[in-house]
Amino acid sequence: MITTEAAAATTAVSLSSKACLLGLLAVHGWGLGVLVLTLAAFVLRVHNLAAESLDIDEADVVVYALADLRTVLQRLLGAGDNGPGYMVLVRLWIAAAGQSEFALRFLSLLPGVATVPLLYALGRKLFDQRVGLAAAVLGAASTYLLFYAQVNKMYALMVALALVTSYLLLRGIETGRWRYWLGYVAATTLLMSTHVFGALVVPWHALYALIALRSSRRHLLPWLVAVAALTLPYVPLALRRLDALQRPETLTREFTGPRDLPTMFAFLARDYGVWFEDEGQDLGLLLFAALTLAGIAVLAWRWPQARGRGLLFIGLGLGGPLTLVAAMVALGAPLFASRYLVLTLPFYYLAWAGLAAANFHRRFWLGGVALLLVFAAGNGLRWWPAAFEGARFKEDFRTAVTTLQRQYQPGDLVVTIHDSVANGVRYYSTAPLNIL
């Protein structure tokens, strides 16, 4: 009897230990996968980080960030600036890290790399680890995200902040804790000051929260406080911006772009998708739309427990900002550019991740891996020429200014076609030049 009981106890302990071991392997296996993807994203993004010279937009950022503090702060209230808050961040970064090409772009590299684990976290929150990991693979391999992680502009930070604020919104709705709502307000405020289009998350987040909080009214108060904090202080600035859009001559730049929704979506398909050639864009658009719709359908089929919350969140993230921009364009403000809507890109990847993650089980796992490899290969072919074959896509101010300084004589006048070109010349000049 004692022997039997001892054997049973030993078996139970053995089974329990095995279950614990498998559980630890599962947990740490997902974490290890995310770590590997994050390191891979860092290697891809740091490679050739300073190979090309700053382009005119990057040089503008440096000049504006280093302007006198009063000018920088005045731009915070300006009507035509995309990301005045980002200029303040760049100013602080330059004080700490310097203004070399590598240092400037490293500020974009950091949020660009952070996007990978953030995609995993949001995908896991909405669905499960499989969707999160598949989305992280897409984010790590994305040429579009890689490009903006190597540019001294605000778009990589926009993506990371959009993921952070979305995650904090979900946690705030789920728990009702003030700390998540305070974090949500802080992250969203930083997003809106990073780029004016960051404000596009507020309406669709609010719509999602209204629907999600119907069954949890005790969490309404912190959400209402958060919405008030993100809207009321900005009403005067919003009114000034709307007035400026009706009078384009008051803006600091000219906006151009498509004016109808199908063309806007076609632009997104070309830049965000897996078909990057100018020829055959109709096929690329169909493929982009098919991947997105199929991913949403598979998520609804394979993850029925998250069907309402997850699909609603992804649907609003995809359609909300684009619809708002289309409405503004219809009112006469040509404000569309794919990069302005880059905060929607993670939601396309989350939808596509459903196709791959649905196959991460049993004998179909190779199908999921194959889908991810096709995406990675398509993006890799786009990235390879610049990474290893010397292809260049930006203005070569570095070489141009070196040649200019060799030929420059005292008393010469350097004439540039506009201020942005002058800023590029100023950044690379190592001696005083008389620039008109």
Description:
The chain has about 425 residues and is mostly helical. It has one domain. Helices cover about 70% and strands about 0% of the residues. The protein is built from 19 helices and no strands. The termini are far apart.
Strand content: under 5%
What is the chains' assembly state? single chain
Average of per-residue pLDDT values: 83
Helix content: over 70%
Please give the count of helices: 19
Number of strands: 0
Could you list the spans in which at least 5 consecutive residues all have pLDDT below 50?
A: 6-15, 17-25
Write down the domain tally: 1
Question: What structural class is derived from the secondary structure elements?
Answer: mainly alpha
Question: How far apart are the termini?
Answer: 100 Å
Largest sheet, in brief, is: none
N-to-C SSE series? HHHHHHHHHHHHHHHHHHH
Rg for CA atoms: 25 Å
How would you describe the shape? globular
Q: What layout of secondary structure does this protein have?
A:
Elements lengths: L1 H45 L9 H10 L3 H8 L7 H14 L3 H26 L2 H13 L1 H7 L5 H21 L2 H17 L6 H12 L7 H12 L3 H12 L14 H12 L8 H22 L4 H24 L14 H13 L7 H24 L8 H11 L11 H10 L8
Helix pairs in contact: 1-5, 1-6, 2-4, 2-19, 3-4, 4-9, 5-6, 5-7, 5-8, 6-16, 6-17, 8-9, 8-10, 9-11, 10-15, 13-14, 14-15, 14-16, 15-16, 16-17
Main traits of this protein?
436 residues, mainly alpha, globular
Could you provide a short overview of the structure?
The chain has 436 residues and is mainly α.
